[in-house]
Design a protein that fits this description.
Bound molecules: iron/sulfur cluster
CATH topology of the largest domain: pyruvate-formate lyase- activating enzyme
Strand order of the largest sheet: 2-1-3-4-5-6
Number of helices: 14
CATH superfamily of the largest domain: tm_1862 like domain
CATH class of the largest domain: Alpha Beta
């Protein structure tokens, strides 16, 4: 019987993509996917340390694996991702963990597993000073979704926002050679993928020689079989008119931009070291909406950052009123070890953070609902990705990234279908396919 693996992923899409690549490597070694950690011979916990919540959850998940290891001592328990980059000693306190590796060497998983067999416990956490050719090799991912795939085009970050641990866990910014990106996209298209998401910590700053993000979008869009191209995460300091024009001019590039403002107060933006003002942010959104009127805008926000007053928070609300969001991810500030902001007094009381979070979420929800209601009765193109978790309806997305529940059968999965929107809620639409309008691919 083939050996089996189980990967538990915490955190961002970048981690999801790294996990898919690790799964691809394990499948290349003959492993099969296990449905539960209990059934697996190798268990990998891919960790995230950007926020306290996933960090704590990862530690508790790792702790719970002890009983599996006790029952099946041959199971290899591995911890990967951002947490080992900074806190390997804490992980090593778990005696049942066999392998610890970081964000720079997940591609060495096969040889690391060999070493565990020979040496027992193995710890290998590298820093960013590894050779270019070893950094992001072409690895065929095991795809969670056969029609939609992530492609990492840039890793790391040079910006050092005062609250963020990423520059310490993922190192300095580096872009993947465009030819390698195109090759990976071609291989995905050959496997039936229709939509690719180009991922980068600050994807707008993608640059390899003369190739910037706008040129890369053109190159990727030319790959036969690819119908949709998305990119994330944008940074307000890097998002440019050239990129907005690429969205407007390349039909395959989806009109959706995730552009996190984090705050609407200049005082807080400066304390966060974000590198732009509220006026510059609003100006960029105005430029984007002028060039691409159908664009959907989403963003991340931190409430209760050290020193955030009621007036600062009101400025965030007014930025949201002015820009109008389709989606927003609001987080209460929590200090992360090793960051500069962790040295600032965390002086906004928990109940105030809570209230601001709810108020901001409610505002974005109202905006999203209003925009979604305008779509009822309209016809949208939806790429059907599969069945919804309950299994009763199909699930897909519009080009501007709105999730749509669609009534229909299995034969529509993987197809782009024309759907009439019949119901709207803040973050979901419901639709019914228009007979005979699937594009048949
Ligand atoms: S831009 Fe700021 S928030 Fe984003 S990854 Fe870099 S340091 Fe973190």
């Amino acid at each position: 019987m083939a050996k089996r693996y189980f990967i538990k992923t915490f955190g961002c899409q970048m981690n999801v993509n790294d996990s898919e690549k690790m799964a691809g490597l394990l499948e290349g070694m003959g492993y099969e996917k296990a449905e539960t950690p209990e059934e697996a011979d190798v268990i990998i916990v891919n960790t995230c340390s950007v926020r306290a919540k996933p960090d704590n959850k990862a530690y508790s998940f790792i702790g719970n694996l002890k009983r599996i290891k006790k029952r099946k001592p041959d199971t290899v328990v591995a911890v990967a991702g951002c947490v080992p980059q900074k806190e390997r000693e804490q992980i090593l306190r778990f005696s049942h963990v066999d392998l610890v590796f970081g964000t720079f060497n997940f591609m060495k998983l096969p040889s690391l597993l060999e070493r565990v067999k020979e040496e027992g416990k193995v710890v290998e956490v590298l820093n960013s000073k590894i050779p270019e050719e070893d950094r992001v090799p072409l690895i065929d991912s095991s795809l969670e979704n056969p029609y939609v795939a992530y492609v990492t085009v840039q890793r790391g970050c040079n910006r050092f926002c005062t609250y963020c641990i990423v520059p310490f866990t993922r190192g300095r910014e580096r872009s993947v050679k465009p030819e390698l990106v195109v090759e990976e996209v071609k291989r995905l298209a050959e496997r039936g993928v229709k939509e690719v998401h180009l991922l980068g910590q600050n994807v707008d700053f993608y640059r390899y020689g003369d190739t910037g993000l706008a040129q890369l979008l053109h190159m990727v869009s030319e790959v036969p079989g690819i119908e949709r191209v998305r990119f994330t995460t944008s940074h307000p300091a890097g998002f440019s008119e050239e990129i907005a024009r690429a969205i407007r001019e390349i039909p395959k590039v989806c009109p959706y931009v995730h552009l996190p403002p984090q705050s609407g107060s200049n005082r807080i933006l400066e304390r966060m070291n974000r590198g732009y003002t509220r006026e510059e942010y609003i100006e960029k959104v105005k430029m984007l909406k002028e060039l691409v009127p159908e664009v959907a805008l989403s963003g991340d926000f931190i409430v209760g950052f050290p020193g955030e007053t009621e007036k600062d928070f009101e400025e965030t609300l007014s930025l949201v009123e002015e820009c109008v969001f389709d989606q927003g991810f609001v987080f209460e500030y929590s200090p992360r070890p090793f960051t500069k902001a962790a040295t600032f007094p965390d002086d906004v009381p928990k109940e105030v953070k809570n209230r601001r979070l709810t108020e901001l979420q409610e505002l974005i929800k109202r905006q999203a609902l209003e925009k979604n209601r305008e779509r009822v009765g309209k016809v949208e193109e939806v790429l059907i990705e599969g069945f919804s978790p309950k299994g009763t309806e199909l699930y897909g997305r519009t080009p501007d990234n709105k999730p749509v529940a669609v009534a229909g059968g299995e034969e529509l999965i993987g197809k782009t279908v024309k759907v009439e929107i019949i119901e709207a809620s803040p973050f979901f639409l419901k639709g019914k396919p228009i007979e005979g309008t699937s594009n048949g691919n």
